[in-house]
Amino acid sequence: MNLAQTLRSLHANKVGAAIEELHRSENDLAAALLSVSDRHKADHEIFYVARDIARWSQEHVSRLATVGRDYDLDLDPEPEDEATLLARMKQKSAEIVGRRHEPALLLLADLRHIQRTAAGVSVDWEVLAQTAQAMKDRELLTTAQDCHPRTLRQMRWANSKIKETAAQTMVTG
Amino acid sequence: MRRTDRIAEPWGSRTPYGPGEPWPVRVDSYLADGVTADDVQHWAQSASILHSNGDALDIAVVDGRIVGVRGRAIDRTNHGRLGPKDLYGWQANNSPDRLTRPLIRRDGELVETDWDTAMDAVASRTRELLCELGPSSIGFYTTGQLFLEEYYTLGLIAHAGIGTNHVDGNTRLCTATAATALKQSFASDGQPGSYTDIDHADVVCLYGHNMAETQTVLWTRILDRLAGPNPPRIVCVDPRRTPVADHATVHLAPRPGTNVMLMNALLHELLDHDWIDHEYVDAHAVGLAELRKMLQGHTVEHAAEVCDIPADDLREAARLIGTSQQLVSTVLQGFYQSHQATAASVQVNNIHILRGMLGRPGCGILQMNGQPTAQNTRECGADGDLPAFRNWSNDAHIEELARVWNVDPMDIPHYTAPTHAMQIMRYVEDGSIRLLYVTATNPAVSMPELARMREILSQDRLFLVVQDIFLSETAQLADVVLPAATWGEKTGTFTNVDRTVHLSEKAVDPPGDARADLDILIDYARRLDLRDKDGAPLVKWSTPEEAFEGWKDCSRGRPCDYTGITYDKLRGGSGIQWPCNDEHPDGAERIYVDGEFWAQPGYCESYGCDLVTGSPVEPTEYRALNPAGKAIIKAAEYLPLHEPPSEKFPYQLITGRTLYHFHTRTKTARAPQLQGAAPEVWVEASTGDATREGWSEGDILQVTTPRGEVTARLRIGGIRDGVLFLPFHYGYWDVSSGHEPDGHGRAANELTFTDWDPASKQPIFKTAAAAAVRVAESGGVPAPAPTTTASRPVTSAVPPTRGDPSAMALEDAATAGGAR
Q: Which residue from A104, A156, A173 is facing B610, i.e. has the nearest CB?
């Protein structure tokens, strides 16, 4: 048994849990992006870009399912379909709509939610990347290195849209 | 001296020349019927304003009236040549339906009024909104057809006087991607190429650029090279069989929306064959490793499938590019108005960086402009940029600008990039912008998804000001219409795509009470009593030349440095290329010589952005990426289309221009020869699709998308299968319904969808999913489309496009004295 396999057998439970958690949170992020997209169809850039970058999270879900097999996980490689995701988001959306009457304020709130969700996913990838290095698990490390930059781009997108719209919403809207 | 029908022969006669030789002079002229050169009392120096090439010309005047034009032999841009729009378009100035009095809306109707009433209405509504909702309730939407002095004044009034961030031009629809692509690769706007590169090139690549129709005189330069010894080879990327494609060694006709895939495959080939100037890249660029990683798997075979083009053609194109010694690339709307606009255009820059093909004769990139003065909209801060290529996310640049304008830096909004046109319209839609001041553009026809646009512009809560020369579709919706002077009726400067600055002198008085745009803008500033921080008037000039001097101060030390140019220096000779300063007293033919860029973090105009999301790169991040200010090789991933064809909408619709018209035909439809050549909208489809559908030439088709419908006669032409083409020039001002369809749509933008490239914010006009059905047979009448251009029919049964006797123009290839 080589060192990598030894480490894996010793720590499989914790690492598996981290992968499982990230698999769930990437599904959440995809859902949040698709939900923002649908709710702000009149803001065309939000509508299209959110869908484009939701696809990244969906790809990450599938890659996590692949690396998860090494840790005896049976994760669904297919991202949750849009209907399931949106159903899950309904409650959250209703909550936000209920509190925010102004649509522009709603957009700000939604983008804030995206940024926070993406920030959480980003931290999870950090943890997984560090773990992968300690475990000498090359496949897991490559996955983290491929996926994590996209999470940062998703987060930055939300942040830049907030910067772009905040002044108009708060002062003039 | 030769008499030529320039409707039938848009590019005129050949004057062949070889590589490295000067382009021979050929002076083109056209005078009104019965007028000879001897009758002309005065020639006023100018340049063309009906396309982006910047052809220098003189305006002929008899008894205070424009009677014709003549090309300027001495000018570096055109060596005397003129295109059809230059030759015939001036007649619109004399049109009897010019706006001559201000109009104001009273009880729902636009009625004539005086300047004082009109300007007071605009100024008082502005003041009210400033008090009630603040500066961000006011937006400015300008053009690519005013003069430098006017844009600079507008930028000053809007940014520093009113303090709104909502300033953009219709350049957003035509040239925004050019600027953004240059900012990604070189961290600054500014064309790396020069028209003279065509004199040297051995390979010329035209990416989504039907130069033969959009810049006819530049294409003439290429035709003359092609007719001479050792001609360059041409690579054409275009889904239509354009005149460029006819002359191409390789014509790639990709599926619309797949440009990034195509470019990545070309780059993959270059890397694979190591057609790379490693010394240049090592010394002058960053980002090669990221590109290599991105291109993994982007083989020609894969791209051939996605783009639906033969793999061997892709290989051959890559070989021509990879083995060229002097490479010129030009890019236009086929990339700029398509899916992933910036990402695709940046890959063209990457080719030049990888091959070290910059800053030397014959090695240039022309990220083209679509409009005559679009470069100035970009330079002067009237288009979503700050003046003189200053960086909105660099506080030192804002402080510098505030010093030039003598205002507090806080008075210049810079908390985010200036708002782009599509977002300005969104803010009008959501009611947060309540006054929109439109100058010299026609969004009611030129913006995507016209039903939505008409709703936005017709809102009661919106105060719409339109400053124009005709009662356009947009002007018909306005609350106040301000009649403007145009080219030939006012003085100013403008700059073409290869950085050549031209002076355009006033030749005649404007009609009626019409006034120069600069005078109107200054009047507006005075009525608002805009002041600098010491209480002096904010706008410190009242003539164009004073405004130009003000602009020179603002441009000092920046890439677009105009400090060495004066009106006097521009008089009599050729146009001058910026930068023109102490270092380059006669201007600079080439920039980026020896791999020196304007990309240093403290100096550059832009830190770039994410090509998928559009998020700006943070200053600290840029400093880490590119501390030494090198060129940036930026890789891009291919994204699937946002509106793919479906069972219900099986075609891909692209829109575009024809040679004989400009924009919404406000001028060109009023020049009889131009209007006669392309009198009515048509739709193009391929032979394959027509055969399958059972359509014939001239059949009347109804083209639909989820947004609307357009009814037009069918031209069966050389477009790729599955794609429909509609020219975008045709609106409603010259039909009975005025500003909107009456029953059937005529404007291509009834069909387009509201979506834009997140990086450049340029709307996508080229990939809507559409359906088409025949509603009537042709009755033997062919489509009213020109036969001389990309709309050429496959059948020879269509009568060729010809001018009437009034279209005969002169060509004089024997004129002594040459351009420099």
A: A156
